[in-house]
Design goal:
The chain has eight helices and no strands. The protein is an all-alpha fold.
Length: 149
């Protein structure tokens, strides 16, 4: 494959690092005080309550609603871990699959909001491309230490 400036594996690494920066920004821009006080989960509860698909409401009520504080921390620190993991290339395949799952959850929850759909679809697409291109082979700690060779 011919490319300009970088080779194909390096461009995939650029995508991986860019996706990591995107996840890190998702974590950074949260108002942590409000988020951990339940603001994010209250917002999501309102979205789930009005959702057109009953399984989303039921799933939210079963999994998230009984443990709002845990879920707030889980979501925020999952975004931080995904960002750092992808930027540094640590446990990259696991981070890519976890990010893909999180984006699909966000996508389903926010099915009516086209602005959110674009972001989540794009992040899911990048995750899939980097995963199937084995994007941990270049510029990553995974490559340096070899757990996924």
């Amino acid at each position: 494959m011919q490319t300009i400036w970088l080779d194909g594996a390096e461009w995939i690494a650029v995508l991986r690092i860019g996706l990591g920066l995107w996840w890190l920004e998702s974590w950074r821009h949260k108002d942590k005080k409000d988020w951990f006080a339940g603001g994010g989960i209250r917002w999501a509860a309102g979205v789930a309550a009005e959702h057109r698909w009953g399984f989303v409401r039921q799933g939210f009520d079963l999994v998230v609603k009984p443990r709002p504080r845990l879920m707030a921390y889980l979501v925020a620190y999952a975004e931080l871990a995904l960002g750092l993991g992808l930027i540094l290339g640590v446990l990259t395949p696991i981070a890519l699959v976890a990010g893909l799952v999180l984006n699909l959850i966000y996508l389903i929850l926010m099915i009516h909001d086209w602005g959110e759909q674009g972001q989540n679809l794009m992040m899911a697409l990048i995750s899939a491309v980097v995963l199937f291109a084995m994007g941990w082979q270049t510029w990553s700690l995974d490559n340096a230490f070899g757990p996924f060779r």
